[in-house]
Amino acid sequence: MSESQATAVYNATSSPPRPPVIQMLGIVKRFPGVLANDHADFEVLEGEIHALLGENGAGKSTLMNILAGLYRQDAGMILLRGKPVTFSSPRDAIQAGIGMVHQHFMLVPSQTVTENILLGLDEPRFLLRLSEFDRKVAEVSERFGLKVDPRAKVWQLSVGEQQRVEILKMLYRGAEILIMDEPTAVLAPQEIEGLFTTLRAMAAEGKTIIFISHKLQEVMAIADRVTVLRKGKVTASGVPARGMSRAELARLMVGRDVLFHLEKEAKTPGEVVLSVQDVYAENDKGLPALRGLSLEVRSGEIVGLAGVAGNGQRELSQVITGLRKCLKGQVWLSGELVSNKPVQFGIQRGLAYIPEDRHQVGSAPNLSITDNVIMKSYNKEPIAHGWMIDMTAATRFAEDLKEAYEIMAPTVRTPARLLSGGNLQRVILAREISGKPRLILAVQPTRGLDVGAIEGVQRLLLAQRAAGAAVLLISEELEELISLSDRIYVIYEGQIMGQVTDGNIEKIGLMMTGTPLSQIETGD
Amino acid sequence: MDPIIILQAGVASGTVLLFATIGELFAERAGVLNLGVEGMMLIGAMSAFSIASATGNPWLGLLVAMLAAGLISQIHALITITLQADQVVSGLSLTFLGTGISLVLGEGLSKAGTISLLPNFSIPLLAQIPLLGPIFFTNQSILVYAGYLLTPLAWYYINHTRPGAHLRAVGEHPAAADSLGVNVQGLRYFYVFVGGVLAGLAGATISLAISPGWFSELTTAGQGWIAVGLVIFAQWDPLRAAFGSYTFGALRRLILDIQGPTTLLGLRNPFYYNPYWGFFLQMLPYAFTIIVLVIGSREAVRKRLGAPAALGTPYIRGERGL
Q1: A269-350+437-447+465-524: what CATH class?
Q2: How high is the ipTM of this complex?
Q3: Is the pTM of this model over 0.90?
């Protein structure tokens, strides 16, 4: 990126000329089989909030991991305030004033906030003297309005607080340039607003912020300028966010026009298919994860379950499928008790499960597409003949599904691990839906997929709704929940806070942070 | 069957377990499970005795034992940290390797005769304390006293120092430590080495102080495995590890002594008249170890007990969320 272009930009926004603080030129990064960054140029000005926009897998995180010293580029150079720099470790980058807040928090849960912040620093030298450093951390947190108790253990903190610790960690080290990797993914709407306020305050203090995201509306809300990446290449470099429309940004990101609206036909829900009554369950650590949770899903409706990750969604899906013990309460599927029954029991009664982890739970990576799609029908005619499997019938079955569900793969003998995320998800959907399920339990069915694949998955779920199946959609993407669901329950610490039918995002947000609907409506 | 003598001997024999347990605890807190403790202890016991009998200097024997076991632990470090192989398999092989080497090199050592041992002494004033004095501070080996110092030091180091915080971070969340410039692999090598050194010290404690001599693999008699079990039992805490080690030391001693007298509490002593009862008693510490290891190998139980979150998994930069 040349100087003249940059000049044009600040003239356009009529702010005082600011020098570029970071220039990444011609960055190339290869991973085995993937070209993650393909001659990417990236330039950030002092004191701006710069969004790096792109789909999952576009190379945003890779590019920023290079800037943060975690990866080394294969080609290209980095200039910091005009001087070439090389970082061989994150420590070098931090010393140069570049700090990164990762999408998955890099915090040690069993240590206190202060211990986490001091990790890797030369000061204190040997004794920890925590009370002294608790005060120093409190000073920094006060200065930037990032409220958090320095003595608290990280596992006791909410996700929003943990994020503040991550930011504090960088500010304590004197970071001038802060890279935020998908910082809103784990936050409730109100917390997102709080984060944006903090980021704006930090930018006003002269800090430079790079904001990685794949969510258009957020980028337009927070960023001064935007750089868009697609398949490792820069498709728009440092364009002012205010001058762009959502559709323009989407096209730059995806490479084609994107439909933002899904057709959803009106439908009256039928009889109750899934009924979860006062269910209690524990998580892997033996702590209560579900605490008296009840919900209902009727045939012909999509019911969303919203909530910040880790509030019991995973455990609920496992209780319904029979993978986790239900300590108290019952799960009924079309009038039959399915809780604490073998997994096979639910499957035989029309339960389809689209798990969150499609590589480890949803499929057997080393088996072929055929083997993966017959996993629920291998013991039934026509694939089964007594105790034998008719491979001709199985292959025919797989080939039919491959065509019907547009699975892009050379043959049905291709191992599942070689498929892209979207195609693998289609394999799983084909297997689950082809059994004509009564209930579809879909957990994060579009996570990590590109926009085209997301559309395909959403259409399939809507088609199942039209066909009269009951769908319970557990997702952290509020937008997806609102556009697909007829009703949305909100889960918080293993309990249902309430349900909305009008997609009121403000109510959902309040419930996601623990306010029951009854309190919201009485105006407390 | 004087309880004071049983406890006094128990503390001495518990010191062996203490060194090995705290050593393993350091390695596990850094995220590396090392099942080779038994093998490293045998290397330590053999080289300590061998050097002491050849040079007449037990201190040199002690030093060589610690270095030798520390060195052999680095094989495990290389295999599991750099080559990222399975820690259980590598640790088991290390036990076989250590046992094999010490049996070959220790051939003939059992006929070496008497050697000069590490000194025993009483601590002036402290020995006068009623009950505790005779048990802990009277006529104990210098290594037993070293054990008293090691326990609080290890606890303080892990919980209240900067390197201790790094150690905990490396075992709990290596990616977080790495992202802040902590040398994860280097620290793991270091603490596996510390574990080896302490296992070597444990072995030398047997052959040069507590039950002097070289009796091939019966020198350690499976105490390395008990140490591995004790780390789980102690929930990775040095203070609990000390409690467990001394308790087990006293139990081992009690099991030996209870088979001596003909009457027990005025009754006919079944452990004296029927050797099978005695064997059953001798089996108990090992049965306990097996049960603890089986229970502790379950992921869910380990989480509940507070095991280091990254225990048993190699750290590869760029995987899992980076």
Answers
A1: alpha beta
A2: 0.85
A3: no
